[in-house]
Amino acid sequence: MVKAIRVLKWEDVEIGDPKCGEIRIRNKAIGLNFIDVYYRKGVLKAPTVPYTPGEEGVGVVIAVGPGVTDRKVGELVAYGGYPMGAYAEERILSADKVVPVPPSVDPVVAASVLFKGMTAQYLVRRCFKVQPGHTVLVHAAAGGTGSLLCQWANALGATVIGTVSTKEKAAQAKEDGCHHVILYKEEDFVARVNELTSGKGVEVVYDSVGKDTIQGSLACLKIRGYLVSYGLASGAPDPMPLSALGAKSLFLTMSTVFHYTATRDELVETAEDVFASLASGVLRVRVNHTYPLSQATQAHADLENRKTTGSVVLIPDGAFEQ
What we know:
The chain is α/β, with parallel strands linked by helices. The chain is 30% helix and 27% strand. Strands 3, 4, 5, 6, 7, 14 and 15 form a 7-stranded mixed sheet that branches. Strands 10-9-8-11-12-13 form a 6-stranded parallel sheet, with helices on both faces. Strands 1-2 form a two-stranded antiparallel ribbon. GO terms for molecular function: mRNA 3'-UTR AU-rich region binding; NADPH binding; quinone reductase (NADPH) activity. This is Probable quinone oxidoreductase.
C-alpha cells in the first residue's frame, strides 16, 4: 500500500506492478496546476470517480514492465499530462509518457516547470508564433504559467504587457520580463492597453482567466489579432456570436497542451526545449511554495484564493530521504 490523494482525501491505494510497456515511479515532487482545480470543481470531467488528481511530477523509476528497454531502474524522469494520477507517493505510467530529467535540473524545479513550461512553449512558439516587435498581453502574469510566458515572450523580442492583482505580483512580473504591468483591480486593463499601444492594440492576448476577461481581451487586440484562451480560472465565458470576431477579423482559439504533445516526438521535443531554456537562462523558475502531499487541500485553497505566486509543488513524505 502507498499513500495517494483521491479527490483530495489522503488514502491508502493499491497500484500493482507495471505491465507491458509500463514503469513504476516513486515520486519526489509533484507540480500543482490550475487544471487540477478544474477537475476537482467539475469544470472538466474526470474519467473515473473517485480519482487521483495531478498532471505533473518527477520521480525515480523503481520497476519496469516487460518490453521496456529505454528506461531503467534508478533513472530520474519527469512527466506532464495525461493520464492523471500524480498526487501519489508512487504511480504506474506508460514508459512513453515520461522524459529523462537532465542532471543539471533539480527534481523540484523540474516538477514545477515541465507541464507549465510545455504550455508556455506551445503558446509562444506554435499556437501563436511570437516574433520580435510583437506586443503581447499576458493575464495572470505572476502565476506559474504566466511568469514563464512573460519570460519567453520577452526573450523572443516581444514587448510584454502583464496583468496582476497586487503590487507584490507586479514587482515579480517586472522581474520576469514584463515591460508594462497593469494592476487590474486599480485600473481598466483595456483602457491601459489602448494607451500603451497608442490605440493600435496587441498582436496576441494569452488569457487563462476566462469569463472575467474574455470580452476585454478581445477589445485589446489589433486588427487580425489572436486571442489564445488556455484556462478558465474565473469560469467559462458566456457564449458570444461569431460576428463578435468580425469587427476586426480576429482569431480565437481555445487550446490545451495535450493537443500539442500528442505524439512521442512532440512530447520529447517540447520537453527538451523547456529544459534547454532553463539551462540557457531564458527561463527562471520560482518555486515559491511547497506543501506536503498530504496537505494538497490547503495548497488548492491557497492557489484558488490567489495567495500564491510562481510555482507550487507538493512533496511526498520522505521523498528526499530515499
